Amino acid sequence: MEALNALISLADTMGSLRSLHHKIKERVFLYADDVAIFLKANRQDLVMLRTILEIFAGATGLRTNMTKCLISPIRCDLESTVTLLTNFPAKIEPFPIRYLGIPLGIRSLTKNDLQPLVDRVANRLPSWKAGLLTKAGRAVLIKSTLSAIPTHTALAINLSPWVIKCIDNCRRNFLWKGSKEAKGGHCLLAWPRVCRLPELGGLGIVDLQKFGYALRMRWLWLRRSDDLRPWLELPAEGERLVEAMFQASIYVELGDGKKALFWTDRWLQGQSLLDLAPCLCDAVGSRCKQQRTVADALLHDKWISDISGLSLCRSYWNICKPGIA
């Protein structure tokens, strides 16, 4: 598959493929035998892609099965969609789609998109074995199976409260009753206490909401600590709560200042400018907060230009200064 990636990259470099948005640094994403390719919806790019696939097949003997290929238009009109079908005989699959087992969409996922996840958890309940298991055995099975199923999805998606509630109902009912339904009288402990660590009086069953926060915080850590990740150049919009938890959990030791964020990182003796001057930071745009590094901000005092309304503040100061003097 690396050979295919090299062919597409060569075509991109030579200008045979139309360039994408400047924020999209990567065009091809490979995982095992799954390939995701981003192209412009025009005849030139589609014909070039088919040519590349034919060259790849002739050199390696690995031919593309068009019946298994999917095309997912992103904000394409009817004319562009017809062009896709005419020049690349694959199935049109509108968003949301599933990639590596995770539903992906260009808008917020609906209940119908996440219902299959709930069904997978419910269908894994081994009710016919429940009578042979003690509550301790059921707890082990919940940790190893029922709690593991949503983990892969929670890595990338903030699960809706109703999804977590449905999965928790399945886990709680199986723990106390061994079936899909259990009444309140069967529950010996409140569910929040069940999700505590054993040292704190719980059973160690994961809290899916908090566990999801921890999983997605890991992406922020990898973005800061590992420069070799191929997805680092992709634009990312994180959750505010997850970003706040991450910022509260780390502090930054300055080196050359090219990684530390000027406005939000805790690089000033364990504190951030957001903590020290919140009113000033309110006048800074969110994009500047997310992108301005310490090295860039201190170069020719660029951080001053991040503050909106600064010229107006100077005008007010010039008017008031004679009276103050």
From TrEMBL:
Among PANTHER family, the record links this protein to: OS12G0587133 PROTEIN, REVERSE TRANSCRIPTASE ZINC-BINDING DOMAIN-CONTAINING PROTEIN-RELATED-RELATED
Q: What is this protein called?
A: Reverse transcriptase domain-containing protein
Q: Which organism is it from?
A: Panicum virgatum (Blackwell switchgrass)
What phylogenetic lineage does the species belong to? Eukaryota, Viridiplantae, Streptophyta, Embryophyta, Tracheophyta
